[in-house]
Write a structure and sequence with these properties.
9-stranded mixed β-sheet, alpha+beta, 24 strands, Heat Shock Protein 90, about 625 residues, Rossmann fold, single chain, 4 domains, 5-stranded mixed β-sheet, Ribosomal Protein S5, domain 2, rod-shaped
């Protein structure tokens, strides 16, 4: 043989299948993955090592019987026998194949179906097919990958028998005899050497059993009798379902929601490990889902997103809902197309389904009120918090590098635990601060306008505020982190003795209490009492700090009040230099503390609900 002869070869169909099995039956290597198997009481996920190509051979045979059941209502029982002792697999149904010779090909129809690639009954694309088989290669593939493959069928008139051996290389002549009861029996001994197998192990047995369970669930008029022979002992299970809903219950899904129509049976349950689908098209298990799963799932997600936005005022990504769903779908699709011969994913476009299902608003509302949506909302919240923490780390890092331009900093080096930062209302205070402060020990941070109400704001909104960033940078505080290595040991709040000043002080207290309540416990936060009124009579000076003190003073003085010069201080800017020097060098301090009562007060004054504020104002 020449080099060219070696390079260019022509294979028979049979030789090509055996040399390139993955093109026809998928992988023939051992795989280990997590699959759904029946435990005896429920369907569970289990890690199994198996050969996908070997399982595909069985699927091709039983699919023929299922397709015939969908066309022929008289075929209502399939008997499957797995002999683990001999590795023989038998599929017997009560249908029957016409025992006649094809007028064109002059070949017995049973022989033509099971020993020729691209032969079958589903090639007329002008007719609607609601069966699994489309290419006509399946059953012949099982014959090619078998050491022995026998056909026995009766069309209620004649019986046909034929045996193939050695990977369909050898065959007996068809034997025709009289018969009365319709049936088709396929018995085969798979060529296990081609699948790295020595026998049919328990994993392969359980996967085949689960496949029979699937078929019974998708065809409620069909009964499957599954028999296992092991150590010469025979055990049988009768598989039959009244409704696809009963099959879903075997997954022990907890709460699930179910609806059906002529062509769709749909179950919706929660998933705590990403999106799952248990789906079937014309009884074919579409392990990888496909367009039918997307068709139903997208309807549900669209309705749920609208409901979530309406009630919770948030936009949830479709993927955030999808990842919490386990969809169960059994549907009928006309003339289905799959991604490969293994039929694990439907690729037929929705517009070509020739069947439809509009998910009901009733079911969507039931799902909306379930644990599914609670888990979605919990996830969205956790994801938002994680994103917020990441943003905080980024912004906190920027605080380390940033310089606070308007900070009048204390100049002490090293240990600054005795340094004081004064927070002042307005820029006008800075000139007096510069004049009277101890430059080594005292710093000043002038606020611009009102401080924000941080009570119910997300952290990302808080830390993006310029005043907040400046104040945190001045002190050395970081959101979401313990107050360590601070640049100041005490914080003095200086605000005007009027409602606006009190409001600013309260917002600052609210800010520190929300993020670093421990600052209050260690005695770090103080309010500097600035005078509301300064009363003078000769050399005598009385500073009055509250309206209650003022009323008491006026009452105590009586008629003599007219002898006092009452000077109302509208703000820090109204203080004289001597008065300013006093509040800086010898301030009237009130140490601020927080406890459970003060937390309730902060919630009342700064929370979203205005009712507690109204009650306090009117009381």
């Amino acid at each position: 043989m020449s080099n060219l002869d070696d390079k260019y070869r022509k294979l028979t169909d049979r030789e090509h299948v055996l040399n390139r099995p993955s093109m026809y039956i998928g992988s023939t290597a051992l795989h280990t993955e997590t699959l759904e198997v029946y435990s005896g009481s429920e369907i569970q996920q289990r890690s199994v090592t198996y050969n996908p190509g070997f399982i595909k051979l069985f699927d091709e045979i039983i699919s023929n019987s299922v397709d015939e059941h969908r066309r022929n209502k008289k075929l209502n029982e399939i008997k499957v026998t797995l002999n683990l002792d001999t590795s023989e697999i038998i599929v017997l149904d009560n249908g029957g194949i016409p025992v006649k010779k094809h007028t064109k090909h002059k070949e017995w129809i049973p022989e033509m179906i099971f020993s020729n690639l691209r032969s079958g009954s589903n090639f007329d694309d002008s007719k609607d097919r609601d069966v699994a088989g489309t290419n006509g290669v399946g059953a012949t593939l099982t014959n090619i990958f078998s050491n022995k493959f026998s056909i026995s069928t009766c069309d209620q008139t004649n019986t046909f028998d034929q045996v193939f051996k050695n990977n369909m290389k050898d065959r007996t002549s068809p034997k025709i005899s009289k018969g009365a009861k319709g049936f088709t029996k396929i018995a085969y001994f798979p060529d296990l050497s081609r699948f790295n197998m020595k026998s049919i192990d328990i994993n392969s047995h359980d996967i085949i059993f689960k496949r029979c369970l699937d078929i019974a669930a998708c065809n409620t008029r069909l009964t499957i009798v599954f028999t296992t022979i092991r150590d010469k002992k025979r055990s049988s299970n009768r598989l039959k379902f009244k409704d696809f809903k009963d099959f879903i219950s075997l997954y022990n899904p907890g709460e699930f929601f179910y609806e059906k129509s002529k062509d769709f049976r749909i179950g919706i349950a929660t998933s705590d490990s990403g999106f799952k689908n248990t789906s079937y098209v014309n009884s074919v298990h579409t392990k990888d889902g496909g367009t039918h799963v997307d068709y139903i799932t997208n309807q549900l997600i669209s309705q749920l997103r609208e409901m979530i936005h309406k009630k919770h005022k948030i936009q949830v990504k479709p993927s955030d809902i999808r990842n919490h769903l386990h969809m169960f779908i059994d549907c009928t699709i006309i003339n289905p197309s799959f991604s490969s011969q293994t039929k694990e994913k439907l690729i037929t476009e929705h517009r070509l389904f020739k069947s439809e299902h509009i998910l009901s608003e009733k079911t969507a509302k039931e799902v909306f009120g379930s644990e599914i949506i609670k888990s979605v909302l919990d996830w969205v919240e956790r994801k938002a918090l994680a994103a917020e923490r990441a943003e905080l780390r980024k912004l906190n890092k920027a605080l380390d590098k940033g310089r606070v331009k308007k900070l009048i900093d204390a100049q002490k080096k090293g240990d600054r635990r005795n340094c004081i930062l004064g927070i002042y209302e307005g820029d006008s205070a800075t000139s007096a601060v510069r004049k009277f402060r101890d430059t080594q020990m005292m710093g000043a941070f002038p606020l611009k306008g009102k401080f924000i109400n941080v009570h119910e704001l997300p952290n990302s909104r808080v830390i993006s505020n310029e005043e907040v960033k400046g104040l945190m940078g001045s002190i050395g505080l970081k959101l979401g982190e313990e107050p360590k290595g601070l640049r100041y040991g005490k914080i003095y709040i200086y605000t005007d003795a009027d409602p606006d000043g009190n409001s600013i002080a309260a917002q600052l207290i609210n800010f520190f209490a929300k993020y670093w309540p421990e600052l209050f416990k260690i005695g770090m936060i103080y309010k500097v009492m600035t005078p509301l009124v300064v009363a003078k009579k000769g050399t005598k000076v009385v500073k009055i700090y509250t309206n209650l003190e003022l009323a008491s003073f006026i009452e105590k003085q009586g008629r003599l009040i007219s002898k006092w010069d009452m000077e109302y201080k509208k703000g820090l800017a109204a203080l004289t230099d001597i008065e300013y020097q006093e509040i800086i060098k010898n301030p009237n301090l009130v140490r601020l503390k927080i406890d459970e009562d003060s937390k309730d007060s902060l919630e009342a004054w700064f929370g979203r609900d205005s009712t507690p504020r109204k009650k306090r104002l009117l009381s």
